[in-house]
Amino acid sequence: MSPHILCYFSGTGNTELVSMLLAEQLGDASLHRVESILSTARSRTVLTGDHPLVLLYPVYALDAPPIVYRLLAHLRRNENEDVPNRAAIITVPCDPHTTNSAAVLGVRRRLGRWGCRVCYENQVVMPANVLWSYPEHWNRQLLE
Predict the structure, then answer these.
(1) DSSP-assigned letters across all residues of 10-69
(2) What global pTM score does this model have?
(3) Residue 118 contacts by C-beta under 8 Å, 6 or more apart in sequence?
(4) Backbone angles phi, psi at 6, to 5 degrees
(5) What confidence tens digit (pLDDT) does each residue in 33-80 have?
(6) What are the extents of the domains in the chain?
(7) What is the pLDDT of residue 51?
(8) What does the buried/exposed string (b/e) look like for 77-102 if buried means 16 or more CB atoms within 10 Å of the residue's CB?
(9) Per-residue pLDDT tens for 11-39?
(10) Which of 134, 55, 118 is nearest to 92 (CA)?
C-alpha cells in the first residue's frame, strides 16, 4: 500500500488534531501543514502520483479556507507532473447543524481538472469553538 500524504490547514487546532490522529491510525502517512508547503517550494517533493493525497481543512462559510485554494493554485502553477491520481477530502466543521458537501465542491473541481479522482469525502464535526455573550437578564433566566 502506498504511503498517504496528509496535507492540512488548521485555523484553531481542531484540524491539526484530526490530522495527527488520522496519521497515527494510517501508520504510513506523512503529515504536512499547508503553510509549510506554500512557504517552501516543497510541493514537488511532497506530492507524487503514486501516493494518495488526503486534504484536511476546516469549513469557512460553507467553503474551503482561501489558503486551501492558494495551495491548489500553487501546485497547478508549478505544473507538478506528479499530481496524485486519487485524493480524499476531510472537512472539520464546528457546527453539526449547517454542515453539507458545499465545502468540498470547489476543491473537488480543482482536483478533477488535474485528473485527480476524489475517492473519499467525510466530515469530522468538532464542538463549536465560539462563545456568545447574552444579556445579563437572559443569563439569570437560563440559570433559574
Answers:
(1) -SSSHHHHHHHHHHHHHSS-EEEEHHHHHHTT-HHHH--TTS-EEEEEE-BTTB--HHHH
(2) 0.80
(3) 86, 87, 88, 89, 104, 108, 111, 112
(4) -100, 115
(5) 999 888 876 555 566 667 888 999 999 888 999 999 998 887 764 455
(6) 5-143
(7) 80
(8) eeebeebbbbbbbbbbbbeeeebeee
(9) 989 999 999 999 999 998 889 999 988 88
(10) 55
Distance CA 32, CA 28 (A): 13
For residue 79 the three cell numbers come to 505544473
Question: 11 exposed, middle or buried (CB, 10 Å; 0-12, 13-18, 19+)?
Answer: middle
Q: Taking the mean position of all CA atoms in its chain, how far away is CA 97?
A: 19
Does the CA dihedral 76-49-36-14 come out positive or negative?
A: positive
Tell me which long-range contacts 32-37 makes (C-beta under 8 A, separation of at least 24): 32/5, 32/6, 32/7, 32/8, 33/7, 33/8, 33/9, 34/7, 34/8, 34/9, 34/67, 34/68, 34/71, 35/9, 35/67, 37/7, 37/71, 37/74
Domain 5-143 has CATH 3.90.550.10: no
Nine-digit cell string for 67: 489558503
